[in-house]
Amino acid sequence: MTSWTPQPQGLEEILRTIHDSTDMNIAVQRSITQKLNSFTRIPEYIAYLAYILSNLTQEEDRIRTIAGYLLKNNSRLILQAPPQVAEFVKSAVLQAFNDPSIMIRNAASQDIVAFLGVLEPRNWPECLQQLVNALDASDLDRQEAAFNALEKACEDYPRKMDVEISGTRPLDYMIPKFLMLSEHSSAKMRSHAVACLSYFVPINCQSLFVHIDNFIACLFKRASDDDPSVRRHVCQALVLLLAARPEKLMPEMANVAEYMLYSTKDKNENVALEACEFWLTFAEDADLAPYLHPLLGKVAPVLLDCMVYGEDDLLWLEGDAEDAAVPDKETDIKPRHYGAKAHGLERENADPNVQPQKPRIGAYGEETIDSDDEEEYDDYDDDFAEEMSTEWNLRKCAAAALDVLAVRFSGDLLNVLLSPLKEKLWSQDWLQRESGILALGAMAEGCIEAIEPHLPTLIPYLINTLNDPKPLVRSITCWTLGRYASWCTQPLSEEHKRSYFIPTMEGLLRMVLDNNKRVQEAGCSAFATLEEDAGPELAPYLEPVLRNLVFAFEKYQHKNMLILYDAVGTLADAVGRALADPSYVEILMPPLTNRWAKLKDDDEDLIPLLECLASVTIAMGQAFLPYAGPVFERCNNIIHQSLLQYQEFQQNPELDEPGGSFLVVALDLLSGLTQGLGMSLEPFIVSTNPNMLNLLTFCLKHPQAPVRQSAYALVGDMAMGCFVLLRPHMPGIMQELIQQLDPEPKFEFVSASNNAAWSVGEVALRYGRDEPEFQQWVDPLIRRLIPILLHPKAPRSLHENAAVSIGRIGLMHPTLVAPHLPEFAQAWCQALYEIRDNDEKDSAFRGLCTLVQTNPAGIAKSLLWFCNSIIRWSQPSPELNSMFSTLLQGFKQHDEAGWAAQMASFPPVIRERLAARYGV
After folding, report:
1. CA–CA separation, 688 vs 590, rounded Å?
2. Spatial CA neighbour of 252 closest among 287, 284, 223
3. Which residue intervals correspond to the HEAT repeats (predicted)?
4. Cβ contacts of residue 874 below 8 Å, gap of 6+?
5. HSE on the CB side for 542, CA within 13 Å?
6. Contact (Cβ atoms closer than 8 angstroms) between residue 854 and residue 815
7. Given a cut of 60, is residue 337 above it in pLDDT?
8. Which of 219, 467, 536, 745 could serve as a FRET partner for 823 with CA atoms 20 to 30 Å apart?
9. For residue 461, what are the contacts with CB-CB under 8 A and spacing of at least 6?
10. CB 369 within 8 Å of CB 287
11. What percentage of the chain has pLDDT greater than the value 90?
């Protein structure tokens, strides 16, 4: 041991606190937590914990073990510790690792893994050496304990293990040792050996790949091991190899596939799940499709069989209860993410039927949240069918694999599964039927064209199955109907509507009011998907729809209430102004205001209600006016309180940073009120205290990006709806807006920059032509917007919003912007030529044409791009069309020979369309 020794007084205090921490009283626990947190400021704290763990043998094991866990949780403190403290901790932990008590050894093992990760093996080589040496110990317990610690280290930080220390690479001798130990007589040792080896596959570890053939031979040898844990790690290693070095497996694929199919049916669920991951990984790699295609006939039916509920699932799910009246446990309710409002433009090549997604409930209650459409940044992971139940399991993995296979192989997959799927759907056994319906939903996205001819039979079958006595069958049927909602809602014909759309709508509405909470959840979520797909087609059925949803407000427990808000908000988005009918307002508003009155300003449940109301206010428009006063006042109050809380945190960083969700949804609801009511908001804005617009200016500089994002959206919406009220505050607002325009924002700031770029254009339009007050900002704005437009890495949506705003500022202040035209003309046309025709694009293009009129030479080098963007318009407004015509005719008349030469170099499609439309 090193020279450090504890002070008796300090040791006594820390020991007493650990003893007190075993008291279960919540108030005591809270003060203990604060006290333990205060100890972390003492430089020697971790040495005291290590001393209690390793030296105080007179204390009971439980107390020493708690010290060990506190040591693990504070492992990062070793980086700032004085040298003698760090040395003492390292040697004390290694001493405890050899303690006679298994509890102490386990705690020390976790400490070793934590400290080895923080310090890295290169700075604690003696620890690594001790663990590797222990693998040769004569005592099996010591061997297994050492291997257990090594396995955790290899799993948690394989790259830190793959280093050179004093001229040698420890893995150069560890890997051959692991390969040798995969033959050990102890199953635990074999399992650790295979696991450790597998963790070095994804990091492309050369020490392993030198022995790759031996490694693969070792996997084949262990493939039929008696121990399921060993077989599970063999499957895991094969999955990792398939992802990292598929070329090594392809020559053996016939054998590997047979083994993995066999293992996918293993009685041990852990082995089966790991093997099933192999098919998911295989399907996700497009380059491997030619190797997977011939295996479809064998793989798909096995996956189908894996989707049947296991006995453990059924015990956990307690699926048969009529539990609508049973209150939810708070632990069942997952935290939800509330996204601030983002402004984007629709592109021509986007599917007009696909609307931006809200949080949506998957097969059994997970949220599938799509992040903003920022291609360069988006790391999209489709957490398909992730139930609210336990963790990821075989059923979910098989469903996810089938989903990916459907996207990859479409009709070929359906051909393979048609017969087994029919068998399941029409089986007498409800578990088989349920799994068939799940499979049908899983295949919806990829196989839709192949399944479409069968849907006239399948949709009525599914609607009928909503009457099944088993709640788990009804809930999965809701989810699957949601997956086919876009087919059911197609406005093909009155006959289609009568046969499929109306019965699906009625069936799902019945499920919304089911007596089983899981069915309610699936029904409500599927109905929200149907609303999104049906859009205005729902308007004629609003009364029965609203009556059902309103009845659900009486019936639902806490968790499903959150999904109900989503369904009401989605309905408002779908039908728009149709909701303004006084009779509908009368049905919907009382239960919403009733909920509103029950919730306090700091109640988390207020957040989804505010989000829902934001959609409702936009849809109802002026019909919402009787309810607007209290809503406006409460939003203002929430914003004020949230800003005060944040200010308190900034003055005292010891406090926890307050979340921004309340602030975001209150701002979004004000945006909704602004869009719905416009100038009718004047009396509310004028009478607020503190003034809402002063608060808004604070929100624009809030450190949290989602708050700024919603604040800029509100600026743009107020510019459109009630600019005269916003105008007196514009000097302060513009100062913040200009700051927010960043050509290369961090990922989390992208949407805030987006909304800032968009709102600038809205403000410029409302000021009007050559408005002196706005002129002071034109130059600083243009100097920031052009670099955004020209930045190769800025997300596409940011390019688009910047281009629109440059166009709009140019429309209002052409003489100030036109000199910059040569800098940005080509990038501007490239940013907007794919955007679908709309008013924003129209005003932006009128701006560009005005700039070209002011500075015709500025477009000379970008004429091809300009002409390309002109012909991409489907129906320009008469004013814009006339501007296009005048400019093109002007170019031609100014220099006919030059124009003809230019035209000759253009692609034929551009020449033809210009000639047909504008005669040039």
Report:
1. 25
2. 223
3. 458-496
4. 837
5. 26
6. yes
7. no
8. 745
9. 425
10. no
11. 74
By 3-state DSSP, what share of the chain in percent is helix, strand and coil, each rounded to 5? 75, 0, 25
Locate tokens 């399991």: which residue?
393
Contact (CB, 8 A) for 252 and 216 = yes
Largest CA distance in the chain: 102
Buried b or exposed e, range 55-92, using 16+ CB within 10 angstroms: eeeebeeebbbbbbebbbebbebbeebeeebbbbbbbb
Give the chain's mean pLDDT. Answer: 89
Residue 173, amino acid: Y
Q: H/E element holding 577?
A: none
At 920, the pLDDT band (50, 70, 90 cuts) reads: confident
**Closest by CA position to 270, among listed 239, 230, 222, 299:** 230
Kindly report, residue by residue over 638-652, the tens digit of the pLDDT. Answer: 999 999 999 998 888
Q: How many residues does the chain have?
A: 920
Tell which residue, 744, 805, 816, has the closest CA to residue 778: 816
- Residue 534's pLDDT is what? 95
Cα–Cα dist 734/554, whole Å: 46
Which residue has better confidence, 392 or 677?
A: 677
Could you give the CA distance from residue 697 to residue 795 in angstroms, rounded to a whole number?
A: 26
Answer yes or no: are the C-beta atoms of 920 and 892 closer than 8 Å: yes
pLDDT tens-digit map of 525-572: 999 999 999 999 999 999 999 999 999 999 998 889 999 999 999 999
Closest CA to 706 of 339, 345, 368: 339
Given the structure tokens 């409500």, which residue do they identify?
A: 524
